[in-house]
């Protein structure tokens, strides 16, 4: 409504003076423009087409310091006729500029005074717009926090208010992303706020909300059409600004009431990516496979005192030990030994030998579905750092599980013949040591 009132004041002034009028904000972005009165020059045409005034046309550095109306000299080489400019100031703060084309310096003192009165009215309107924007921004931030609150009542109330106040215009399709900057970057969070602002700038008003807390930012998108493409475009823009950041995407959903679940999904994707050592980038909850469930478990949920002893001994070898890597490849491929051997680039007899060793150490029977389930859960939790067994990782494995990728490329076959594998040395648990010593 404020911009419409500015437009009305500009058109009324232009009609009274029979001169073309334009209004810019303090950054020379065009806010309002009157009809032409046969005095438009190339500079005005360019400004209308691009919705801004070129700083080089008007000596912007000097213009920003003006306190009183002044005349801008013509610049024929730039296609600029002479202008009369009135700075739009309210209580000393600069809000923009009012422009009138005055090619022959024919504005009378009365007309200049009329332009000054119009400028005062426009400055007051722009100040009011700023106040409303600040109020709406504070309200939107507060309601966004409530929208992610654990309480269903708070979430429902926040969703209703966001729609009632027009802060979100349509919630037919909703998506949430969470960005986290490198915790070792030394940043105080300023870069995250700036990156979120820059990434969301192309989005239409009423289609997004954001919140930032130090190194973490959350963005909600809500619009009439599906949001997945916009979600990924926004994530890519965040990574352009923060190359070392990670961005987690929640699954696209419908309705603001589902935003809290989407935000938790995005946070799980971030956590899983960090736990698996993924490089900075974008990771979607929909791409996590079993980690979508396992990644929700707290790190201290499982105690090594409660793990079966054989399984504990196997996990103590380390997530990147050849036996753990072999077991994971075997289980990821539903017990297909030929496929697992191809992915590990070993002969099948080598695979059989390793599986025998795994069964001896763990006490598991890998032909039993229940034992396979236990082993698979243990390996995946161990990779996430949630198995209760904490050992430093060894060298990178030859097989990398691909639950986060759409397809695995088959590895080259290794030369025939079993590989020589040294027996594993298994560290006993403390309670076992005490028992043996007794």
Key attributes of the depicted protein:
single chain, 438 residues, alpha+beta, five-stranded antiparallel β-sheet, five-stranded mixed β-sheet, 16 helices, 10 strands, 13% strand, elongated, disordered C terminus
Structure description:
It is built from 16 helices and 10 strands. With 438 residues, the chain is an alpha+beta fold. The chain has a 5-stranded antiparallel beta sheet with strand order 2-1-5-4-3. A 5-stranded mixed beta sheet has the order 7-8-6-9-10, sandwiched between helices. Strand 1 (21-25) and strand 2 (30-33) form a beta hairpin. Helix 7 (190-200) packs across helix 8, helix 12 crosses helix 13 and helix 12 (322-332) packs across helix 15. The longest helix is centred in the first third of the chain and has 39 residues, at 109-147. The chain is elongated.
């Amino acid at each position: 409504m404020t911009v419409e009132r500015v437009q009305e004041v500009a058109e009324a002034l232009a009609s009274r003076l029979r001169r073309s009028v334009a209004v810019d904000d303090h950054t020379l972005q065009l806010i309002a423009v009157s009809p032409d009165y046969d005095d438009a020059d190339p500079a005005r045409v360019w400004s209308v087409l691009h919705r801004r005034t070129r700083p080089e046309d008007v000596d912007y550095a000097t213009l920003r310091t003006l306190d009183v109306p002044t005349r801008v000299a013509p610049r024929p080489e730039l296609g600029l006729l002479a202008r009369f400019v009135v700075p739009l100031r309210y209580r000393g703060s600069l809000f923009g500029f009012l422009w009138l084309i005055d090619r022959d310096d024919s504005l009378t003192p009365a007309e200049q005074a009329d332009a000054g009165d119009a400028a005062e009215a426009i400055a007051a309107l722009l100040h009011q717009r700023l106040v409303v924007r600040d109020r709406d921004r504070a309200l939107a931030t507060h309601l966004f926090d409530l929208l992610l609150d654990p309480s269903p009542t708070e979430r429902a109330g926040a969703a209703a208010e966001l729609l009632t106040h027009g802060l979100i215009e349509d919630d037919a399709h909703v998506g949430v992303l969470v960005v986290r900057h490198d915790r070792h970057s030394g940043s105080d969070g300023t870069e995250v706020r700036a990156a979120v602002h820059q990434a969301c700038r192309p989005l239409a008003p009423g289609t997004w909300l954001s919140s930032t807390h130090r190194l973490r930012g959350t963005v909600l998108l809500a619009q009439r059409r599906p949001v997945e493409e916009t979600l990924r475009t926004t994530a890519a823009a965040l990574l352009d600004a923060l190359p070392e950041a990670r961005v987690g995407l929640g699954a696209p959903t419908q309705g603001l009431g589902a935003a809290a679940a989407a935000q938790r999904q995005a946070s799980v994707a971030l956590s899983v990516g960090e736990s698996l050592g993924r490089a900075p980038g974008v990771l979607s909850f929909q791409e996590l496979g079993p980690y979508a469930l396992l990644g929700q478990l707290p790190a201290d949920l499982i105690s090594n005192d409660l793990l079966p002893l054989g399984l504990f001994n196997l996990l103590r070898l380390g997530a990147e030990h050849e036996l753990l890597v072999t077991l994971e490849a075997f289980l990821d491929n539903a017990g297909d030994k030929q496929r697992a051997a191809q992915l590990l680039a070993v002969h099948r007899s080598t695979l059989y030998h390793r599986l025998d060793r795994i069964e001896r150490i763990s006490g598991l029977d890998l032909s039993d579905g229940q034992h396979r389930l236990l082993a698979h859960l243990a390996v995946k939790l161990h990779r996430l750092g949630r198995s209760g067994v904490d050992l430093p990782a060894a060298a990178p494995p030859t097989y990398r599980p691909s639950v986060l990728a759409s397809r695995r490329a088959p590895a080259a076959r290794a030369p025939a013949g079993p590989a020589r594998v040294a027996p594993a040395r298994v560290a006993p648990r403390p309670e076992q040591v005490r028992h043996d010593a007794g």
